[in-house]
Design brief:
Layout: H1 3-22, H2 30-54, H3 60-84, H4 89-111, H5 120-148, H6 156-188, H7 191-194
Helix pairs in contact: 1-2, 1-3, 2-5, 3-4, 3-5, 4-6, 5-6
């Protein structure tokens, strides 16, 4: 297994650690620790692609596993967000629907001997998801610091409301980009639907 593929596998391995930290509020500073783990996992996404392109190490495994690792990472984060009340289930359902459709299309293509790599819209979708998750975790960490007495924020109710609205806006931007990228992906690969037997 080459280095880019190892980084992809590492990204998947980091997911349970991220989930455990995020869902255990007993751990002091758990939001920022979760953000660091998520950020590190996200960076492997940038790094594995860069190394693969630079050293001509692009493989069919990488084309398939890299977007799959992204889906696992982001889906885990959003599921945790629903669990702790940072987003609603509708956001998760819409994103999962898109991901299942795209993954199904990839499996059909793979069955016909074609590996379909992520397009630029898919990459933009992934970046928006990563940025939104990190920003929401950072906002929650600021509130956590206030609750712990590490900082003292005036008008904490107002700040909390602003963070809630900002988080909601970020999530719906992510949903919009996710759905747009899914529609474009399905359209670009419509041959696999048309010729389905």
């Amino acid at each position: 297994m080459n280095t880019p593929n190892k980084l992809t596998v590492l990204r998947i391995i980091l997911v349970p650690f991220f989930v455990a930290v995020l869902l255990l509020p007993q751990i002091p500073h758990h939001y920022i620790i979760a953000a660091i783990i998520f950020g590190a996992a996200s960076y492997t996404d940038h790094l594995d692609g860069k190394i693969a392109r630079k050293n001509n190490l692009i493989t069919d495994f990488g084309k398939f596993a890299d977007p799959l690792a992204d889906k696992i990472m982001v889906t885990a984060a959003l599921a945790c967000f629903v669990q702790v009340g940072l987003t609603n289930a509708i956001v998760l359902i819409l994103i999962l629907t898109r991901e299942f459709m795209v993954t199904s299309m990839r499996l059909v293509a793979a069955g016909r001997g074609k590996v379909v790599a992520a397009n630029n819209w898919g990459k933009a979708k992934t970046v928006s998801q990563i940025v939104a998750v990190l920003l929401i975790l950072i906002m929650q960490y600021i509130l956590e610091l206030n609750a712990m007495g590490c900082i003292s924020l005036e008008n904490i109710g107002l700040i909390s409301s602003i963070f809630y609205v900002a988080s909601d806006i970020l999530m719906w931007i992510v949903v919009a980009l996710t759905l747009i990228s899914g529609i474009i992906y399905m359209w670009d690969n419509r041959e696999f639907v048309k010729n389905a037997k």
